[in-house]
Amino acid sequence: MNNKNIFLIGMMGTGKSTVGSVLSSIKNIPFFDMDIELEKLIDKPIDEIFQDYGESRFRLIESSFFNEITKSNQYIYATGGGIILDKNNRNILKNSGITFFLDSSTDTLINRLKKDTKKRPLLGDNLSLNISKVFNDRFDLYKKSAHYTIKTDNFTPNDIANKIITYFDE
Q: Is a pLDDT exceeding 70 seen at residue 48?
């Protein structure tokens, strides 16, 4: 792999954090999970940040943080699912590294997230409807922000990490 950043984008539940960690171990590249690091910085879980500040302020904080941390090269970044909502963030994803859209079907996402709705502020009470809405609202932005799309349905994190590695060995 070259000295560029590797960005993993996609919906919540696609495996960005897990795949990033596996990829980091395989390739010995430092891994940065944006949500975890943002929680450490603000000293609150993401759902409380949303609750206390609202989504629009959270997105401003997230974007400022993303802009700062991506100035370093040779990192693997698992981004928050909404990182693509900001135009500047999309420019960073396209121009400051190689971006992989981890794409899962809404059925897979619902299955993975059904026990995790309390920590996911955008899911609310109607998981199926909300996942579908968020997915449909963001899909084109994920595609436009990514250099490569990898379907994650029916693949393990190791399988996905190895698929990512093949793009660097071409």
A: yes
